[in-house]
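Anyone opening a protein record will find just a pair of labelled lines. A complete record is shown below as an example:
=====
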Amino acid sequence: MKITRALISVSDKKGIAEFARALEKQGVDIISTGGTAELLRKEKIPVREISSFTASPEVLEGRVKTLHPRVHGGLLYKRGNEKHEKEAREQGFEPIDLVVVNLYPFEKTIAKPDVTLAEAIENIDIGGPSMIRSAAKNYESVTVVVDPADYDAVLEEMRDNDGETSLKTRERLAIKAFIKTSAYDRVIGNFLNKEQTTDASFSLSLPLVTRLRYGENPHQKAALYGDFDEHFEKLHGKELSFNNILDISAATNLIAEFSEPTVAILKHTNPCGVGTDVDLRAAWEKAFATDKQAPFGGIIVCNRAIDEELAKAISEIFSEVIIAPEFEGEARAILQKKKNLRLIRLTTPVNEARSTRDIRSVCGGVLVQDPDVASDVPQNVVTKRAPTSEELDAMLFGWRVVKHVKSNAIVYAGPDRTLGIGAGQMSRIDASRIAIWKAEEAGLSLKGSAVASDAFFPFPDGLIAAAEAGATCAIQPGGSVRDKEVIDAADERDMAMIFTGIRHFRH
């Protein structure tokens, strides 16, 4: 269908002047609105105001300008349908063959920290989605463009086909348009649902980032959606796998717990070891010492730029992914010698990269919850003996790590490092036994250590095992019907214990 008339109304004006100028050179009559029309006039591009086209002024402070029969009639009437053609002539509908619209920036508006509900509502576009949907519905005759990335393709097709676009192109653009308006409405609905604290429904629409080679296993198809690529930049190595991305997310959430220079090693989203030190090489040695077997093929994350000394140390083992806010010159050169190692630069602050919703699929639906980002740790000392300052530091270090270990989870820690980690066991005592065994395998003493438990000790046996291993203090949520028995067991062994009142289950 040859394009003779275009309606252009865009919020994102990138490239629109060049696009409109190219249309004008092909003899296209251009209709426009507000700021878009003003821009085109400044660029010396002939343009008709929408009010001239509709013979009706904009009203209600611009809320009503394109919601008019001449606009939607010009878009929706079926070309070649005798009845439609007759009615169009009688009503004075001029055909609109091309609609170029992108919408009010609602997402940017609600991203402002001080946005009000009234401001958000004023940035809900009504006329734009209406025109997009009318044009997309009649894609057999009308071309609709909602993405500046499609300008060149449309112009090229028009130049090659005497001003016409193909049905295949119009169909592709129409599908893209409906996806755009659907996503736009979901963002609005989710925002208002949150603001009004209702539970009407949950919906999610995210752009495709990339198709993945496969999912968790080679027989599973997979893709990545969202804005992952806005937070992470791959500097080197093979393409990321499904499991790499899960590990990168887990590593980012873990390292976000620490403001001091810290190195962490993870495997299958579980921490293998975490160490803190002003000397990053020393922090690495503390983390690696926790478990020297599991890190093979693991993930390393650091919250400081990786320097040459650290790069030399971590290059001695095989790793899948290394994540850091930056890689200093020589460090990057050292690590890039490993062909298959993925180097990932964290391009935004870790707290910005963390998800605002935790979403998991279940049979017949999804579970949605707030992420577990509780940072305040209530320190209710429940034993006769209060912890020393060093013990308290060790308890809090372990507590920051244990929330990122699969339940049932036990972490033995010192003030600046992990000493033993037990993850994902059906009983808490088994998790403790594994953590103790891991420490023994690594040649690390648990004497004077702190034990952190993600949930309460249901029986005294877990605490007793920790004391026998050398722990002198414990941090746990409390809340068991046998709390008194556990406290008594701690007092009998002169242990200090804190109840946080906060649980960190991680299924």
Q: What stands out?
A: The first helix runs from residue 16 to 25. The chain is about 40% helix and 20% strand. The mean pLDDT is 88. The longest strand covers residues 270-276.
